[in-house]
Amino acid sequence: SFTMNMYLFVYDLMQFCGHSWIFTNMIIRFMTFGKDSLADTFHSIGLVMRLCQLLSVLEILHILIGIDKSRLLPRFLQITERIIILFVVINSQEEVQGKYVVCVLFFLWNLLDVVRYTYNMLARMGIHYLPLTWLNFSLCIPLYPLSVLAKGFAICVSLPYFESFGTYSIKLPFPFTFSIYFPYVLKMYLIVLFAGMCFIIRNLFSERMVHLGTGNIKNKRS
After folding, report:
1. What span, in angstroms and rounded, lies between the C-alpha atoms of 153 and 34?
2. Of 82, 102, 147, 161, which has the fewest Cβ atoms less than 10 A away?
3. What pTM value is reported for the model?
4. Quick check: 222 pLDDT over 50?
């Protein structure tokens, strides 16, 4: 309906503004301060980044109620990956926030999202600009695996701090013998992360074929 389409357009517009601000801020800071800006990335844009990622949880709801026709599982995996890395790994360890990998991760996320939300906004209005469509469904194929590698590296960097501070580790007192050592949880999540990457990459190639197949390209050109 027109109302739902308008709502989705406003949602995409809000995300586009948020990620564009982050992306532009990162570039300007790097051009102004050089490498010194990298260590301060999280403190400069972390709040807006967290708001954008929390807002992205709505995309799961959009799929569940049927106003977004995207596949649920790939989108769910991509969103939860970011939530876990941003809020559990980076936000909880101040020592990790100053690492260069955080800047790399934020750059990849925002580059992908600026393109994706631009494409979504135009698509809501029935505008399908072929170069933008190609970029949206092609750029994610090389950049998503790079972002997964950055996520994995961020987890590896954070492990010594989780081991030292015992963050999120739980040990119940006697007579219980149950305990959770969080670094082990993160190491197991690394396996899930890379296994999910293979599934999501297959889905990205599938989406690319659907939107950039020979027949679709000819139709859009005509």
Report:
1. 23
2. 161
3. 0.90
4. no
